[in-house]
Amino acid sequence: MPDPFLRRAEDIKKTLLAMESEAREEDLFALGYMIPQIELVQEMAQYDPEDVTSEDFDATYRQWLESTFMEDAMESDDRQRIEELWHSAMNRAG
Q1: HEC states along the chain?
Q2: Through-space distance between the first and last CA atoms of the chain, rounded to whole angstroms
Q3: C-beta separation of 58 from 90 below 8 A
Q4: pLDDT of res. 52
Q5: Among 15, 19, 71, 92, which has the minimal tally of Cβ within 10 Å of its Cβ?
Q6: How far apart are CA 16 and CA 30, in angstroms?
Q7: pTM score, two decimals?
Q8: Integer Cα distance of 34 and 48 in angstroms
Q9: Residue partners of 38: CB distance under 8 A and separation at least 6
């Protein structure tokens, strides 16, 4: 049985990489911050592949970002831009 959490993570990562390849210079920091977080979420998340949906990845990733913002003392402007890019990536990934 396919793993929807993992599949969504891969789709989002591909989308973010595509966004990075066409990004304006001012978005490169935010995208460069977001992309490696996907693999960390995949490594740290504990779940049963039979009991998750793709939306569970989205929620887990979002919570992860919030915690890393706090740990990294992320500036509010950077947080806001990451949030905007995250919504764009979710929409583009479908």
Answers
A1: CCCHHHHHHHHHHHHHHHHHHCCCHHHHHHHHHHHHHHHHHHHHCCCCHHHCCHHHHHHHHHHHHHHHHHHCCCCHHHHHHHHHHHHHHHHHHC
A2: 21
A3: yes
A4: 93
A5: 71
A6: 10
A7: 0.91
A8: 24
A9: 9, 12, 13, 16, 61
